[in-house]
Design brief:
Number of strands: 2
Oligomer: single chain
Helix content: over 70%
Structural class: mainly alpha
Number of helices: 5
Order of helices and strands: HEEHHHH
Largest sheet: 2 strands, antiparallel
Distance between the termini: 25 Å
Strand order of the largest sheet: 1-2
Radius of gyration: 19 Å
Number of domains: 1
């Protein structure tokens, strides 16, 4: 019985660590996606803030045209989606399952970006909620993969 409790605790610790690193990485990729698109579109990129006490991450970008502004707003999500696709096609089981979490964070973190592009708030909120569902699916599938891996390593095969 205590073995199963320790196994479950180990799985949750691994998942919390993965979630923390993926969330921090997803925020960085998202904001740097905005900055890269701003540079490509000829916008004035002032700063990129990933962490500041009491503030949400943001990229300070000024664009002259509405089209450039829309591209910059969409680029944060697209950067997360691109990284999720790269992780998925890697073929490794953990990276494949982590790709869902990355894409989910991309959707979840793009609520304000989608709304700033003119998307109705209800639809942007629905996409953000879908992002949460994708994050949960990715975390549960990671949990299952880790449990199967750990359980198969610790079981004794009898012939």
């Amino acid at each position: 019985m205590s073995y199963r409790i320790l196994l479950a605790a180990r799985i949750w610790l691994v998942l919390i660590a993965i979630a923390g690193f993926v969330m921090a990485g997803s925020v960085a990729v998202h904001e740097l996606g905005h900055a890269a698109a701003g540079i490509v579109m000829g916008c004035d990129v002032h700063l990129v803030v990933l962490y500041s006490q009491g503030e949400m991450p943001f990229a300070g970008i000024s664009c002259a045209s509405g089209t450039a502004d829309a591209v910059v707003n969409l680029s944060g999500f697209l950067a997360n989606l691109l990284f999720g696709i790269i992780f998925y096609i890697s073929g490794h089981i953990v990276l494949k399952r982590t790709s869902y979490v990355i894409a989910g964070f991309g959707l979840f973190g793009s609520l304000a970006d989608f709304h700033a592009m003119g998307m109705p708030y209800a639809l942007a909120l629905l996409l953000s909620i879908a992002g949460i569902a994708i994050i949960i699916y990715g975390m549960l599938s990671l949990c299952r993969a880790e449990a199967v891996s750990l359980y198969s390593r610790h079981t004794v095969k009898r012939y």
